[in-house]
Amino acid sequence: MLPAELVRRAEDIGYEAIALTDHADSSNLDWIVPRLVQVCRDLNRHRPIRAVSGIELTHLPPEMMAAMMKEARGLGAQIVVVHGETLVEPVCPGTNREAIEAGADILAHPGLITEEEVLRAKEKNVFLEITARKGHSLGNGHVARLAKKIGARLILNTDTHTPDNLISLKFALKVVRGAGLEAEDLQRMIENSRELLSRLR
To answer: Residues 6 or more apart from 85 whose CB is under 8 A from it?
Structure first.
């Protein structure tokens, strides 16, 4: 799906903003980020929805994380997401910790994240993801429980790869309740998203 189509589809169902965060490692980071920066700039001139350029650093050895994050930001990525230790993929152990320490904006689907890591996310102001994506969402309840216990901040994401992955507010509430949270938690996550957007250049 082209970025322009994704943004238009999101606009059509009522989104105020959408971050375009394609998967990257060192093979494609320098190709993807400048193009997302350009298309977001173009679309933002003509559409009311705000398109945000980002990247999802994926399956990196943890030792590469900090340098790749710095490179992504240098190339113009407004949001850096890290593909966390989801239950359904063999993500390198230590990814969650390194993503937090390196200062990711969002740690996506962090699976069985530890209490210590959640505490560090709180201290470093890294948002932890509650995801609507099948498979990755298996860890939502664990992430939600620890975040509530420790006071870390959550953010709801769709992890959209195809048009049917975009969700309505009604379905977002189902995802949140499925994670053991309530409507007020969803509202807080929406506010967290707006705060993240307000920080961006």
So the answer is: 91, 93, 95, 96, 110, 111, 112, 113
**Listed residue (34, 108, 112, 15) closest to 73, CA to CA:** 34
Can you tell me the distance from the alpha carbon of 43 to that of 6, in angstroms, rounded to the nearest whole number?
11
Question: Mean pLDDT in each 10-residue stretch from start to end of the chain (201 residues)?
Answer: 97 97 98 99 98 99 98 98 99 99 99 99 99 97 99 97 95 98 98 96 62
| CA dihedral angle for residue 83, residue 128, residue 94, residue 142, rounded to 10 degrees | -110
Task: State both tokens at 28.
Answer: 């494609």
In CATH, 3-199 is 3.20.20.140: yes
**Which residue ranges make up each domain of the chain?**
3-199
* Residue 96 · residue 128 · CB < 8 Å: no
At residue 85, φ and ψ (nearest 5 deg) are -80, 60
Distance CA 140, CA 144 (A): 6
Cα distance between residue 16 and residue 195, in whole Å: 13
Residue pair 126/65 in contact by the 8 Å Cβ criterion: no
pTM score over 0.90: yes
